Amino acid sequence: MYEPLIAVENLTKVYRIGSVDFPALDDVSLEIESGEFISIVGPSGSGKSTLLNIIGALDRPTYGRVLVEGSDLFERDENQLAEFRNTKLGFIFQAHNLLMRTSVLANVALPGMIAGDSRTERMERAREILEVVGLGDKITRKPTELSGGEQQRVAIARALINDPLIILGDEPTGNLDSKTGAEIVALMKEINSQQGTVFILVTHNPEVANETNRVIHLRDGRISEEVYTRLVEQAEVREELREEIAAYEESKTAMAELNGQRALVFEDMREPATVADSTSVMPAVPTMKTTKFCRECGVQILRDSMYCEECGKKVA
Ligand code: ADP
Questions:
Q1: For domain 6-240, which architecture applies?
Q2: Which atom of ligand 1 lies at the shortest distance from residue 202's CA?
Q3: Which one of 50, 51, 223 would you pick to mutate in the ligand 1 pocket, going by the greatest count of ligand atoms within 8 A of its CB?
Q4: For the segment 48-101, what is each residue's pLDDT rounded down to a tens digit?
């Protein structure tokens, strides 16, 4: 049976302070597929961060479910949730939460340590990812010695260290100028298209939202609108490809059938040739053996003889 990567079902969240309820999400349902690049937009207080935090298992819903690869996230205990967060998710926040007095390399390798990888493994992986985000030459620096954009690159590298299925970003470009913000979004897009990592970004910035394939608009805790951009084109391309593959498979089957029939025809055609093979070739015109008799005395005459041996009469 088909299952989306993430299925959010009737998600409702009510915060209660004292005896007062603050509804944050109201019956939100959506499906997220592998490879998507999504933004969640909406006014302040519309429930964006709450939705992101529940998908990231940082908060629990009051009602509703989140299924990841078909399994209910909130049926897991706290340890299982922590493992899920550490192995399947990466987080990028506006304030990148880097350890400021620790090297860039160690900052990126840290989640690998929690996942239990060996020191050599995680340092090697951290080095590779820092190359991917364009910081290969700055691994020994401290975050304080980097620009805001570079610090956010470190945060992206740290989010990628355990090769997550999904990266959740809460205003990941919020502290950056527009040019640096655009570079960070371009980097995330590249990672999305090359590695298939799903990105879900909460943003106030329409320029960031415009770069994503699907924009989910929230208002008062509900989805007010969903806009698909390039994803529609991608889906169309995928559909066309699927059709082409189906047609190709069909023609392959037809060819195989045809070849099978041809093989049978060849078998039939080869039958006589197999009998008259080159070592037992029959002469095209067989020698006629005629028997002659003497007209005079009726005695059989030897084949090559001109005269009857009985009466000596010449044979005609
Ligand atoms: P957004 O990210 O769109 O600004 P949030 O998800 O942060 O919105 O908040 C949605 C609503 O839930 C807001 O009204 C907010 O005040 C309320 N809210 C969020 N977190 C809490 C909390 N921990 N306690 C009480 N109310 C909260």
A1: 3-Layer(aba) Sandwich (3.40)
A2: 2
A3: 50
A4: 999 999 999 999 999 999 999 999 999 999 999 999 998 899 999 877 789 999
